[in-house]
Amino acid sequence: MPPLTISGSSILSRTVKRALEVLRPPPELTISDWADQNRRLSSEASAEPGQWRTSRAEYQRGIMEAISDAGVESVVIMSSSQVGKTEMLNNSVAYHIDQDPAPIMVVMPTERDAETWSKDRFSPMARDTPCLTGKIADPKSRDGNNKILHKRFPGGHLTIVGANAPSGLASRPIRLLMCDEVDRYPFSAGAEGDPVNLAKKRTVTFWNRKIVLVSTPTNRGASRIEAAYEESDQRQYHVPCPECGEPQVLVWGQVKWDKTAGGAHRPDTAKYHCIHCNAAWADEARWTAIGKGHWQARAPFDGIAGFHLNEIYSPWVRLEAMAKAFLSARAGGDDTMKTFINTSLGETWVESGEAPDWQRLLDRKEEWKSGTVPANALFMTAGADVQKDRIEVDVWAWGRGLESWLIDHIVIEGGPGSEACWNGLTELLGRTWQHGNGSQMTIARLAIDTGYETPAVYGWARKVGFGQVAPVKGVEGFNRASPVSGPTFVDATIAGKRLRRGARLWTVAVSTFKSETYRFLRLERPTPEELAGGTDYPPGTLHLPGWIDSEWLKQLVAEQLVTVRNKRGFVRLEWQKLRERNEALDCRVYSRAAAWILGADRWSDKQWDELERQVAAPDAEVGKGNVTTPRQSRPARQRRSVRSNYMR
């Protein structure tokens, strides 16, 4: 039998066919269609492993279709947690790897977050989604195509960076930019500026670019995602009532539950009540109704599609759990309530900045011996405000829970041009105040403002040593997670000579501590009868001595937080003076920053217990009354000329 042959025309036909297969455009699939057909959820990254179903959370369909839509340049998702926003981001990345290859960048708040997403989210998805198999190199291969933060695939690549790494943000041109948790990004990527704007510059060469910003919001006026959402068409998800059929946006005010005859809350009875007919929806009815909802914009579309969601929409959250979280947050005060507002309701937290009436503070004065430190105080800090003709210093004592007492108000005449003025400030570092246990207490840390006559402040701080003195620079904005950052080395001019890295500067988000001060001033205090019965003051209580005058009180409440709208119509929060002099408020902020620098906000209960033990019995326990503040880690060697031990 002659050998089987294939004609040249047949070979050519098959070659052309293969070439045409390569050139064939991808099928007309949206991201949600692709995910329903191909995406597999991994067991280590999902509570519901297996085939992806967009219908499980129907609101996700409209968001992913907007990312797929060529007419939408940017997509903004401002939402709570537990709504699947990270999985929508994952689907978008996987879709483009499989169907529409392009240079992709995923930006996380930090490089550590970037590595975590790559290892715990992307890698399991790439492994368990069959259509991605073979398109991304084996992580064990040595060809360099599959690194933790950079992965290549046919037609494109995936770069994963942290917003705190300016070199990563500026490295490559990008067509698809995915920014997750943008409200957790630093204010600046090094010295390069805003990391979101820096990343956006990578997309300018692509006519078909896509920018996706995702985050739970933070503070009103300081939230990136809120500002981006207000620039969008502001879509909300409308859900029809199972009873009357009227569509509505789901809001927390319509979640209601019963109480017992004694007034105790029963979160297990929580239901959603229709805003039109008051019909009560159990969880199952709520989830069914959400599956029939639709997105509706509140503003004209101009290339940016914006979506807002709260946890009430989530098919993975029961209202009983939300009600319990709300009651717990309300009992915990502003800090826990802020977390609920941000992460459960997907809304910005509005800082409380109403100035307390200074005359009402007169009634809160307390009498203790002048020049002495109350027994419950455990350490002291000071805040110094440099003025043209003087330096004003307030000394505050601090106890557990950041309870505080104003110990002294000192005015050193002369100003920064006077050597005698600086000598007086130096002497203050060694001054002692009698503690309630009989020991002598000194200032543990003094924070001094560098906004006026900066070289003189740096020169004095360098002379006395940075162990007991912290030069600070106030910046606007709220940062409750880390209101103080640093220290950073800055150049200093000493006696006309410029010294590189000559001073250590701390940066303080003053808005955070001003809001905290006003919140502490408004705390309800126990009655005399309750105090006699053993009731403690609430954490954060701010105690004012009887010797302080009305001018100082007016300065303490001299500013108010107001909402300012810019020319484009966007709002931000800004502290504005109600009167010219506000030194008492500034000194309080600097003194509070000094307590943060010492680590008081991060000390464990064990560390507080040890500090209380030392203060309670200084002579018997630690000899001559010397007490040291708990330390988080071994301190760096520092040049010092004044003792920082503050119990003598």
TrEMBL record:
Terminase large subunit GpA endonuclease domain mapped to chain residues: 304-601
Example of a GO MF term: ATP hydrolysis activity
Region (Disordered): 617-648
Domain Phage terminase large subunit GpA ATPase intervals: 46-295
PANTHER family to which the protein is assigned, alphabetical: PROPHAGE TAIL FIBER ASSEMBLY PROTEIN HOMOLOG TFAE-RELATED, PROPHAGE TAIL FIBER ASSEMBLY PROTEIN HOMOLOG TFAE-RELATED-RELATED
This protein's name: Phage terminase large subunit family protein
